[in-house]
Amino acid sequence: MINVFAEAPQGIQAAPHDPRIIAAGYQVAVREVDLSHVRDKEGLMLAFLRGLALTENFGRNWDALYDVLTDPNARPARFALVLCGYDLFRRRSRQLGAELERLLLDAQRNAAQQGRSLWLLTEEPDTDPRMR
């Protein structure tokens, strides 16, 4: 498997095994957002609030999320966002997932235009089939 951090970010990609350890070698800051229990926009915004360690004054809307992801003062120049449970979230909330994907890809393009890197990585939980 090609190391995602050795290349420029390219859309939403599968996270490597142990993304934090690999990212450290490439001086990439990593934050995880757990989407596995998200069912609505409010839950989605709360997941980002927690995952990105935002303050309670975070606007909890699309514009605020975009601003947080693209603000050079808020994020390191080399930043990876690991979306845990992304595939399950997308299956469960198709429209919300499509809106999130558009926003994330726009933020990634914006980062590239600023000479910054925003990796968007998905990581699915190792689930026991009996727990589904």
UniProtKB/TrEMBL annotation:
Domain Barstar (barnase inhibitor): 29-121
Cited InterPro entries: Barstar, Barstar-like_sf
Pfam family name, one: Barstar
Superkingdom assignment: Bacteria
Stated family: Belongs to the barstar family.
Protein name: Barstar (barnase inhibitor) domain-containing protein
Organism: Deinococcus carri
